[in-house]
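Fold sample X.
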Amino acid sequence: MSVSIQHLPDRQLQPLLQAYRASVSRRRLRTGATTAAFIFCIFVAAWWVRFDPVMLFDKIGAFGSFFSRLLLLDDGAYVFTDVKEWFWGWKDWLKLIGETLLIAYTGTVLGALFGFVACFSAASNLSGFRTRWLARRVLEFCRTVPEIVFALIFVLAFGLGPMAGVLALAIHTLGALGKLFTEVVENIDMKPVDGLTSTGASRTATIAYGVMPQVWPGFASNTLLRFEHNFRGASIMGFVGAGGIGQELLTAVRKFYYADVSALLVMIIATVFVLDILTGQVLRRLNGQERP
């Protein structure tokens, strides 16, 4: 099978080549201008925040020396040489780790429940403009204010303790998961929803049978990921007196107990590793996947 290639006359080909070259030139000019603007913004931002590369390289040694001190006990020996001395308070620290997990779990559950309710009002394919606008503004407020600020407010209102941390995480989780849930809902196939609506089904029935079968894997994945994130957030809630391991970590930092700081960090990191493994297994089971 032969293929014939048609050649245009020069008088027709030259205008096309000129138009192509002009298009390529404009595209390259836009790319160069965008790159130059991006680099310029980086330099302006660095100048505005007084970022000093010279100071960074001069002081990088102090940064490294701090981490080296984390590996030394009070007698100067490496922490690995006496693990019992390194983790001398592991029983009390485990209780605080457990309290931190409970703070993160309770805050995640409460936030996910309220985010679940709010996402259907914030979704553009399920709600009208006014309802959607109000729901999205509420979610934006909840996730814009940092958890530590909410925790400080609740500590002032309710006093020291885990309750302030739970409420702070719950409100921030409501805003974050509400946004993620909304995006999942807005990407569903609307045919089942339209079919249920045409039969006169109620909004609750439409959501239960037309929306939920499509969105629950995404909801579960985002909630488990948020739980892991909330544990890290709950770990610093103690800085403002909102319970958990953070108070002990702050005390160790202030008193320059470097070995205690490293031991606490190891326990927090190990807990995050375990949470990542467990949440991954739960997700695979929910999605019906075999364990690799």
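Fold sample Y, listed below.
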Amino acid sequence: MAGRGGQARILVHLDFLDATIAALSAQIAARVADRYQAAARLLADVPGFDRTSVEVIIAETGADMSRFPSPAHLASWAGLCPGNHEPAGKRRRVATTPGNPWLRRTIIESARAAARTTDSYFGAQYRQIARRRGPNKAAVAVAHSLLDVIWHMLTTGEVFADLSADYITSRQDKEHQTRRLAGQLEKLGYTVELAATA
């Protein structure tokens, strides 16, 4: 048990740590505002991202998507792609590939925050997957979608536009109706080849 002298030293040390964190946070914010203001402004509109997560994304990627030929490359680098394990020639899926731990942690935390939004695509995506496969796999799926968004926004400079929660429902309804109608035609003896109209 620390005495009063020990408690005072602990409090002084905590004050030192708080002051150090505040000074570093101010330096990070200044550098982001100086060199990466456009990227930070784009990412700030994405559900689930706060100032800290935007700063981590910029720090870990340099806001430069030219290093990643596709969103899948970015997801793989972040360790958010499904991996494969091949003992004795048998392929088995494992959770995810190893990757950048800081970016991975930040994106998964952001995915959980985005999942709590009620009228966003990410919230609907999380709820749909969580019902079938559990909350952890749903969070990884949303994190993967967030990385897709990051890659496209930082590559094209386009602002974020949420597809809304209705997007998933309407797409499922369309796919269900397509399968039902194709099945009816096949029962009548027709071969059905589906092709989307231009």
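Sample Y note: The chain has a mean pLDDT of 84.
Also: Helices lie at 4-35, 37-43, 51-61, 71-77, 101-115, 121-133, 135-156, 166-187.
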